[in-house]
Amino acid sequence: MSLRTRAPWVVLPAVLTLVVGASAAGGATGGSSDDPAGADASASAVTYDLLLRRGHVIDPKNNRDKVMDIAVKNGRIAAVGSKIDPSRAKQTVDVKGKYLSPGFIDMHTHLFRGEQDAYADGVLGLPPDGFTFRAGVTTALDTGSSGAENFELFKKNIIDTSKTRVLALLNIVGKGMAGGDKEQDLGNMDAQVTAEVAKKYPEIVRGIKTAHYEGPSWAPVERSVEAGEIAGVPAMIDFGSAEERSIEELLTEKLRPGDIYSHVYSGLRGELGEDGKLNPALRAGRDRGVLFDVGHGGGSFDWNVAMEGKKEGFWPDTISTDLHVTSMNGGMKDMSNVMSKFLAMGQPLKDVIEESTWKPAQALGRKDLGNLSVGSPADIAVFELEKGKFGYPDSFGLRVDGKEKLVTELTVRAGEVVWDLNGRTAKPWKPGAVGDRTHTEHAAP
User: Fold this and answer.
1) Which of 370, 362, 378 is nearest to 410 (CA)?
2) Which of 26, 81, 275, 332 is least surrounded by CB atoms within 10 angstroms?
């Protein structure tokens, strides 16, 4: 069963309007073709803002896996083809020998940075722009840091001020991930109130989250699913530990098709049996349409579980970091590093890219993202697969060595170059050269 079949969430009318309108505009200004002539013939008068030339394009939605050019205009993909005339571009970057894909979508992050002592408006969250672009991430999903009571503060302080596209899962706890007893308070878990906030911000709030609950009640899961049902979005489950609640019941009875189980390779929630095999509940859940997310984090990725997953062919639906203060300097590091772990396990690059772009877009009902179709937002990752010997530790001090490492060379967000590792878009210096003096050091995003 394909992910598209398993995830029924419908793209919102507003998003559909955006995509259709943009596609029409894109076709008028540049067209799209994998044929060298077709990419250029309809647009002789067009001036592109940016042209990325001769990169190996991997675009799973459009089944592209070959050397191509990508042209950008007005923040959107304007043309895709084998030979696009560089004289028509204001800026051309030759990325020969590099890979080019849709910007990565990190399905599990915590970005509600603030003054409190947890993830909700707290010191455990991270401001996104400093940790996304350098890893090729253009869209980051905050997974439940905020709840109905403080989402608007999160939106005002983080979402609205970041260049990174920040989407959100709303925590079923009204106070969000405020830590300690606050996340155990069943009285602060209201499905209707949560759903109403989700419906108020449909393009941003793309699901409901429950996490960190340690009691015996199924109420956090059931109310998250109920809120998701009301708002028409999936629920993501970070399954707390309690003997009274089993992963088998969660995956075979409680969750709907399209709901998401995160931390699938943690080994902390019964994912691996005493016999060393994957819990059959994982396969049963997948057969029902439940999606499985990596959510590496600081303590949720165990090579014993991941390698057994490889052996049994149980790959994730979506790759993600669980980015926060206590995970970024451990075995997780960043999105490109987590993706590299799956390459080290032997998963094909095209599949790793799909699990980091198009599959997350589908899971979130945002099919305008995660692809390089004409008219789509010009969110692009340019990267290199470095060859050598690289060590990839899990969350528990165990290392697997790999021969490849994904390194982000260039990141484009909404048509703007926001990360340039080796200064490919800069002019070579020579004595007397004058650079662009319009940039200011402390300009707002």
Assistant:
1) 378
2) 275
Cβ distance 89 to 71 under 8 Å? yes
- Strands 92-94 and 104-109 turn out to be unpaired
pLDDT in tens, 414-430: 999 999 999 999 999 99
Give the SS3 label for residue 93: strand
Mean pLDDT, residues 423-444 taken together: 83
pTM given for the model:
0.91
State how far the alpha carbon of 416 is from the alpha carbons of 43, 87, 91, 94, 436, in Å. 22, 19, 11, 16, 16
43: pLDDT strictly greater than 90: no
* Mean pLDDT for the stretch of residues 278-282: 98
Residues 264, 12: Cα–Cα separation, whole Å? 28
Give Cα 3 distance to the centre of its chain: 16
The answer to whether residues 402 and 307 touch, using CB atoms and an 8 Å cutoff, is no
Query: Of 228, 212, 350, whose CA–CA distance to 290 is shortest?
Result: 228
What are the CA-CA distances from residue 291 to residues 208, 315, 357, 362 (Å)? Answer: 14, 11, 15, 11
Q: In degrees rounded to 5, what are phi and psi of residue 48?
A: -85, 150
The pLDDT of residue 29 is above 70: no
Residue 381 to residue 390: CA distance in whole angstroms: 22
The DSSP result for 366-417, as a single string, is -TTSSS--TTSB--EEEEEEEEEEEEEE-TTS-EEEEEEEEEEEEEEETTEE
Q: Which of 27-36, 47-56, 237-246, 367-376 has the lowest mean pLDDT?
A: 27-36
Q: Which DSSP state fits 18? A: H
Which of the four pLDDT bands, split at 50, 70 and 90, describes residue 44?
low
Task: Please choose, from the candidates 336, 351, 349, 340, the residue with its C-alpha nearest in 3D space to the C-alpha of residue 402.
Answer: 340
Query: Among all chains, which residue has been given the structure tokens 């050019």?
Result: 69
d(CA 50, CA 75): 9
Distances, alpha carbon 293 to alpha carbons 84, 237, 321, in Å: 38, 10, 10
Q: Which residues pair with 6 in a beta bridge?
A: none
Mean pLDDT over residues 206-235, rounded? 97
Contacts of 66 (CB under 8 A, 6+ apart): 56, 57
Residues in the chain: 445
Q: How does pLDDT run across 148-157, given as a tens digit for each residue? A: 999 999 999 9
Label residue 275 exposed, middle or buried (CB < 10 Å: 0-12, 13-18, 19+): exposed
Position 37 pLDDT exceeds 60: no
Q: How far is CA 175 from the centre of its chain?
A: 24
